[in-house]
Specification:
HIT family, subunit A; binds BIS(adenosine)-5'-tetraphosphate; Ap4A_phos1/2_N; 8 helices; 318 residues; globular; alpha+beta; 3-stranded mixed β-sheet; 19% strand
C-alpha cells in the first residue's frame, strides 16, 4: 500500500467528479450464485450508461482520448518515472476511482503485454491493495476486438474489487502454490464452467515476483490461449484474435474470446465479466439474469471457447 499514491488518486477523483470531468454512473448491484456451477456473480445494473455523453458522436469515435489525455483526468503523467505510462482516471466509471494505465507512446491494443506492462501492473496492485482494510484491486486488459475493448491505444485498467466477492479464480487457486505451466503441467481450469480459461496462482512471497516470473507465466498462458485461434481459423476464417487478461496479487488468468457480445441477451462482456463482474445496461437483461443466473455461464461460452479442463495443450491443439 502506498498512501501517497492512493491519496493522490482519491483527491483527483473527488475533484474530477465535482468539476464534471468524471462522469460517474450510478448503479444497483446484486450478488448471485450460479446454481449449476457454484460461481458467484456480482451483477451491476447501470442504465445511465446507455446515454454515455460521447457515445455515437462521430468526431469522438475517431479521436484517440489517450493521445492527449485531459489534465483533469491525469493522475500521473509518468508513472514510477519509467517514461512509459500515464495513470488516468476513467472518464466513465461505474466504480469510483477506476483507473487506466495507458502507454505514453501509441501502441496498439492488440499487442501482447510485455514484461514491463506486467510488472508495472503488479506494482500498482501492491500500491493500491490494503490487506488490513480488505481493499483489493483487479488489473485487466481487453486485447483485440472480440475482447470487449473499444479504444485502440494500449491501456490496462484497474478496478476496485467488490467487498467479500469470491471469483472462481480465487476458489481455483486457494491453497495452491505458484507454478509455470509447461509441457507436463497445465494451468488451472474449473471443469464446472462451460468456457475455456487458464489460471495460475502467483507466489505468496511477493519478493519473488519479478518481470521474468510474470512474463514466463503470461507467455505460458498466452500460448494456450492462442491455440484456439490457430485451431478454429480453417472453419472460421472470419475469427479475429481476442483475449482477456486478468491479474490480481493472487493469480493471473487468460480467457480466449470469440465475440464481444452475446446474441442470447443484449449484453457485451469485457475482462470483468470473466471474473463474474457482470455489467448490465438494459433492464430486461438485468431481470433475466436475476431470474436465471446460469444464463451468464452460457453467454460466457458463447463469447469464449469450450472448456478444455482435463486435456493437455497437445491434445486440444491437434
Ligand atoms: P476499453 O478496454 O476499450 O473498453 P471497456 O472498458 O469495456 O469500456 P467501454 O468503453 O466499452 O464501456 P462500457 O460502456 O462497456 O476501455 C476504454 C476505457 O476508456 C473505457 O473504460 C472508457 O470508459 C474509457 N474512456 C473513454 N474515453 C476516455 C477519456 N477521454 N478519458 C479517460 N477515459 C476514457 O462500460 C462503461 C464503463 O464501465 C467502462 O469504464 C468499463 O470499463 C466499466 N465496466 C465494465 N464492466 C464493469 C463491471 N463489471 N464493473 C464495473 N465497471 C465495469
Amino acid at each position: 500500500m502506498n498512501p501517497e499514491l492512493t491519496e493522490k488518486i482519491a483527491a483527483k477523483y473527488a475533484k474530477g467528479v465535482e468539476s464534471g470531468d468524471v462522469h460517474f454512473s450510478q448503479s444497483d448491484c446484486k450478488k448471485l450464485k450460479d446454481p449449476k456451477t457454484g460461481a458467484q456473480y456480482m451483477v451491476t445494473h447501470a442504465p445511465s450508461l446507455l446515454k454515455k455523453p460521447e457515445r455515437g458522436d462521430k468526431e469522438t469515435k475517431n479521436r484517440n482520448p489517450f493521445a492527449e489525455p485531459e489534465p483533469e483526468l491525469t493522475v500521473c503523467d509518468d508513472l514510477y518515472d519509467l517514461g512509459k505510462y500515464k495513470l488516468l482516471l476513467n472518464k466513465f466509471p461505474v466504480v469510483p476511482e477506476h483507473l487506466l494505465l495507458v502507454t505514453r507512446e501509441f501502441k496498439p491494443q492488440i499487442s501482447a503485454l510485455d514484461p514491463t506492462d506486467l510488472l508495472t501492473s503488479y506494482r500498482l496492485l501492491q500500491d493500491l491493495d490494503d490487506d488490513d482494510e480488505q481493499i483489493r484491486n483487479l488489473v485487466f486488459y481487453n486485447c483485440g476486438a472480440p475482447s470487449g475493448s473499444s479504444q485502440d491505444h494500449k491501456h490496462m485498467q484497474v478496478l476496485r474489487w467488490p467487498q467479500k466477492f469470491v471469483a472462481f479464480q480465487d476458489r481455483l487457486c486457494s491453497g495452491k502454490d505458484h507454478f509455470i505451466p509447461d509441457m507436463r503441467t497445465e494451468p488451472l481450469q474449473d471443469a464446472k464452467l462451460s468456457f475455456a480459461h487458464f489460471v495460475v496462482p502467483l507466489p505468496e512471497d511477493e519478493e519473488t515476483v519479478d518481470e521474468d516470473l510474470l512474463a514466463m507465466t503470461f507467455v505460458s498462458l498466452l500460448q494456450r490461449t492462442l491455440t484456439f485461434f490457430q485451431d478454429w481459423s480453417n472453419e472460421h476464417p472470419e475469427l479475429q484474435t481476442g483475449y482477456n487478461v486478468l491479474l490480481t496479487r493472487q493469480w493471473m488468468c487468460l480467457v480466449p474470446r470469440s465475440s464481444s457480445k452475446s446474441s442470447e441477451l443484449d449484453i457485451g462482456f469485457n475482462a470483468t465479466g470473466y471474473a463474474g463482474l457482470v455489467l448490465v445496461k438494459h433492464e430486461d437483461v438485468w431481470n433475466k439474469i436475476l431470474e436465471d443466473p446460469h444464463v451468464v455461464d452460457r453467454m460466457m461460452l458463447e463469447c469464449g471457447f469450450p472448456n478444455t479442463a482435463g486435456t493437455s495443450a497437445n491434445e486440444y491443439n491437434y
